[in-house]
Amino acid sequence: MRNLRGKTVSEILGIPQLKESIYPAGFYTRKERYLKEVLRYCQSRIESLSLPNDAREELLDLNGIGRETADSIALYAFHQRTIPIDAYTLRLFNRFFGTMLSMRNYDDLRRSLSTTFNQEQLMEFHALIDEHSKKMCRKIPRCEECLLRKRCKKKL
Asked: What is the dihedral of CA 126, 92, 134, 108, to 10 degrees?
């Protein structure tokens, strides 16, 4: 990300050897192809001022774009009512609610949250989950410092 920060979509698409810029991310040859495809998609939507009704479904049709990436782009770039269900979300929900959610539950959990919250709330909720999971609800949790510990089902 550091190598691409501050660049426009056109500038990124114009980088002849983009894979050198994204090398640190791993799988750079494949990611270069996928990144260019998604950037072209976003650029065409922005230039034509035709925001898709369901960007998520269109993004899922692009090579290399999975559910989490499609939901992230649809939520943050196209301001649609969806939420990515990432590892942080699953970890927090499993610990806090004492459930056993997995990626098999992805669409059910995404639909449930998307119908419960509006788009702005989903953006904030997702950001808060990620931030909390990075600081407190880590792989090795810091429960003793967590403000949610009294209501959390996770017992150390």
From this structure: -40
